[in-house]
Structures are given as C-alpha cells and as structure tokens.
Amino acid sequence: MAGPWGHLVPVIDHDSVMGMTIGTPPPPVPLRPDHRITVVGVTADGWPSLPGRLRRTVLEAEVVLGGRRHLAMLPEAPGQRREVWPSPLRQGLPGLLASLGGARTVALASGDPLVSGIGTTLIEALGVDAVRVEPAVSSVALARARMGWPSERCAVVTLVGRDPRLLLRELTPGHRVLVLSSDAATPAAVAALLVGAGYGGSALTVLGDLGSASESRLEDTADGWLASPPAQVPALHVLALELAGPPGYGLVAGLPDDAFENDGQLTRRDLRASALARLAPGPGQHLWDVGAGAGSVGIEWMRAHPACTTTAVEADEVRAGRIARNAGRLGVPGLRVVTGRAPDALAGLPSPDAVFVGGGATRPGVLEGCLGALRPGGRLVVHGVTLETEGLLAEAYRRHGGELTRLAVETTAPIGSFTGWTPARTVTQWSLRVG
What we know:
CATH class of the largest domain: Alpha Beta
CATH topology of the largest domain: Rossmann fold
Strand order of the largest sheet: 13-12-11-14-15-19-16
CATH architecture of the largest domain: 3-Layer(aba) Sandwich
Number of helices: 12
Strand content: 15-25%
Helix content: 25-40%
C-alpha cells in the first residue's frame, strides 16, 4: 500500500519549547497595562552574535527566561532574576508569568521565536500587544541554505513533542522535507517509519548544531541508517529528507477504500469525495465525524490541511479503536476519537465548523444537536441509505433548504466470462451551509 501525502505543518525551534506539551493554549494571564515581554532570538553562536542593542535589552531586564543553554551563555548581571522554562511548559507557564508582576522581562529563544517557538506560546498566553519579538535566523532557514533547497520546494514538519507518524502524510516520491527533531533518537525513528512505508531508499541528512563552530553533517539512506546507525548523533539537529518510494495517495479527497481498515462500515470513495467537497475543509477548522465507522471522512478532512482537526464520534468500541489506527497510519494521529452515541456524546465537544453524519441520523436529537452546534458559516452533510433516513432528510431539506442529492455508484465486476456493472446502495445526501 502506497504511503499518504500531506502539506506544510508548523515547526518548533528546539530550545524555545523545552518541555512543551502540544495542546490547548493556557488561559490568558493578566498583566499590568505597562507590562511587556521581549522575546530575543539567539543563533547557535550565542551571546557574541547578538547586536549591541539586544545585549543591552537582555542585561537591563529585571527577569530573563530561557532554556538552560541560553541562560548559561549570559554574562553576570547582578540582581537579575533568571528562570528556566518549566517542564511541562504549558502547565507551568501560567504560574511563572503570573509571578513576574510588572518586572521588565526578556525571554530567550532559538532562532526565530515565531517559527512555532516560545514566541507563539507567549502570544497565545498574553496577547499580541504584550509580546515584542526580536528574531534571529531560524534553524529551518539555515537547513535550507545548507541543502540548497528553496523554501517553496520543501515542506517542514516538526516532531518536537509530536507523534512521528505525522511524517507519513508527506510521503511522495521526490518530495523534500525538513524535520525538526526531538532528540538524537529521531533519525532512527524516522528511518524506521520510512522503511516500513516502502521508502527505505530515501536520503537522510542530519544537519547538527547549525550555525555553530561545531556544525556537522551525516548522510545515509533510511535503509542504511537502520542497518548501520552512526555511533553518535547531535542532540540538536535538523533532519533533511529526499523521499524515494512508491506513489502516494495524492492531495485531493477520495482515498481508495482499501486504504482504510474497515468492517464494511465505511463511507465509500466516491461518496466520501462528494461529502468532503461540500464540507469544504479550511485551515484551522474543526469537524465532527458523527457515526464515524472507519473514520474515513474525518481522516481525509485532517489530511486536507495540517491545521484541520477532527473529533470522530463512534458508539462501537472496536470501530473506535480502528479509527485511531487508520488515523495514525494515514499521517493524522492527532484525530480525537470519542466512544459514545450521539446526541449524548456530542455534549462538551469543541464547536465544529463542519459536521458529517454518516450514521445514526434518525436518532432523536442528532440532526438538531449538530445544526445547533455549528459555528456561523458552518457546513452540515448527512448521508442516508434507508427510507426512514431519506424521509427525515427530505423533511430537513423542506424546512432548512440546502442541497438534496441522490448518489448512485456502479462499479464493474465479473459476470461469468464477461464484465458487467454492480450497483452499490443509492445514498441520499443532504448538505447545508448555515448563517
């Protein structure tokens, strides 16, 4: 089976987020109206590379926050408070920020603090007006320069604090990917993923300690790395991949049905493509996949853009486990699975931008609950194959409008020594855009 494709995902500068746990941003921390934090990006050369004005900013601060490596490079500044980022960062950050009062504060970061680094996290916590960012050259820019890769011709994936299976969405022959690694073990984990997906011939280049005097470079294929791993790998590195393997699945909706482990409860390829065209996934938007079955619609929603998210709701525990396996294997391991039956299982879920109901539409309260939960501009798509569901959708169309479509798909199959058409069950599709 060919590996999946994907798009650009955000990256995280290594020392900027030591101990960071990816997840919901912390609640905003109240500060005095005149309180600001300046985030200063630092290259691998450290303190000597900072311009004079930024050195003065750091030395004149009452509080300096940063990773141990960053704080260790600073000269003495009598009376200055220095704090290492808490670990895990997101849980400890609100308390740390609340302790600052109105002190003049500098936060040190690696490279560009807004390449999904600590600058991003602080803006989420404090608001954009409370954070000033002074960037340096990011490790991504340095890696592209060393490889000679134009930015528009390569993707960037961070595996810092994230599931390595995210890389699987990028698999396609000839594709170039820069991977921000968690630690020295990441190249071996990536090599194993690539070999398992039939991409063992992919070229791996480990670019260590970029921008420093100890900068290094290790090169091999994924197969070669597993067969004979190097004795030592720099803990701080960027991994450059030139992928070689079988064709991927492509960038549009409608993965082959056999891409999904399933027990027959699967929204088939042509119907899935039709539903996703109407669900219209957009960057950062959230989908409810209700009565998810094998999870195919929610998985393809997340594959449409790296910032898309899905909550799959499935009453059957075996199917719920199958959804999680499908999501991980197809490069979207962050898909959330809720085991329960709608409408009760919908309570407390993040508000959706779109909802797909693939099963259970006739249960009392399901359609009403989904419609009521949609954000303005939200989209609803419901599939039905029974007369009862078709009647329900016809009534919903009469009351709310939208689009009512009947989809009939036929595929070829042997008839003795000949070939004929085999029809699948006709599906009634109701779609609606609200507000």
